[in-house]
Amino acid sequence: MLRDDDTLFAALIARDPSYDGFAYVGVKTTGIFCRLTCPARKPKRQNVVFFSCRDAARDAGFRPCLRCRPLDLKRPTSGALDAVRDRIRAEPERRWSAEDLRALGYDPSTVRRAFQREYGVTFVQYARSQRLGLAVNTLRQGGSVMEAQLDAGYESGSGFRDAISRLIGDAPIRMPTRQILTAQWIDTPIGAMLAVADDAGVHLLEFAERKALPTEIDRLRKRVGPISFGRHPMLDALAEQMEQYFAGRSACFTVPIAQTGTAFEATVWEALRQIPAGHTRSYGEIARFIDRPDAPRAVARANGANQVAIIVPCHRVIGADGSLTGYGGRIWRKQWLLEHERRFASAIFQGART
């Protein structure tokens, strides 16, 4: 349901991302409609009108803003980030430098900040992770250390070994005998997510901005094994199902979950997966559902320990008073996810009735 205009105007001034995709502003003086997060100069209160969907704005005669691109499913990111990221993925073996960025017409400091905002790492770190992931894949397929070193663009054998060791915590020559987890970035309308998986399933799926992410990665490396960026069929399937979810077509995830925890945590995580999209539960309700009515606080701790966001939907848990409570991916994302699910669950229900 569209909020009142005063609330939406306040969200426009604050560039509140929780309304992205659920509310749009039309500017009467320009005939353009925008996302509430549009970085353009804010119009006066009397010159705006709000819409609950893009079609309503277009039907009213407004044109989409070329700056915030309200017709795009994904939120707009820096043009430099999109272009450079695509070049890195197309040439993962290349050793990118600031000079390369300048040759492409981009300011290195602008690119560095864009990558830091979206992925929590610098441009150089992102490029290096892709390059080393390519090398690790060479080793996994039976290639020699020298082949992997050349694939990664390293002239120095010792430099390559040091880089691999920092990435996955082991020497290259020993890697084929150890289980290696594969990591991949998944871009979503509300920010980049880091996914980690192996043949057993998904071990981690978290937003890049989650403060606990470095600790979770370190814990995962110690519990399961080293981590390398690269391609994996499990991650390809996850990316496809995530795309279906954010497009509002399906909230059903069939990829297996492989995160480890205590028996109690596993019970809570399974209970979370029983909450239908478009619905919420309180900690107390989950405690009663698992026959532990005396343990709502323990349920809250288990909820917070979940490392597979969205698929294990800890965002569907709210306070007994209806408040959103905490969320590691930030409260605005929790609000966005709940509204997104409420809308497409309602659409599916309406479609089933007709």
The helicity comes to: 40-55%
User: What is the count of DSSP helices, taking H or I runs of 4+ residues?
Assistant: 14
How large a portion of the residues is in β-strands, by DSSP E? 5-15%
Q: Structural class of the helices, strands and pairings?
A: alpha/beta
Mind describing the biggest β-sheet? 4 strands, mixed
Q: In one word, what is the shape?
A: flat
> What CATH first level of the largest domain would be assigned?
Mainly Alpha
The Cα radius of gyration reads: 23 Å
Q: Say how many strands there are.
A: 10
Second rung of CATH, namely the architecture of the largest domain: Orthogonal Bundle
Strand arrangement within the widest β-sheet reads: 3-1-2-4
Q: How do the SSEs run, as a string of H and E?
A: HEEEHEHHHHHHEEEHEHHEHHEH
Instruction: Count structural domains.
Output: 3
Description:
A four-stranded mixed beta sheet has the order 3-1-2-4. Strands 7-6-5-8 form a four-stranded mixed beta sheet, with helices on both faces. The protein has a two-stranded parallel sheet with strand order 9-10. The chain has three domains: 5-64, DNA Methylphosphotriester Repair Domain (3-Layer(aba) Sandwich), CATH 3.40.10; 74-178, Arc Repressor Mutant, subunit A, CATH 1.10.10; 180-354, Arc Repressor Mutant, subunit A (Orthogonal Bundle). The chain is flat, with a radius of gyration of 23 Å. Helix 6 runs antiparallel to helix 7 (145-151), helix 11 (263-272) packs across helix 13 (296-305) and helix 12 (283-289) packs across helix 13. The model is unreliable at 142-152, 170-176 and 349-354 (pLDDT under 50). Strand 1 (24-27) and strand 2 (32-35) form a beta hairpin. With 354 residues, the chain is of the alpha/beta class. The protein contains 14 helices and ten strands.
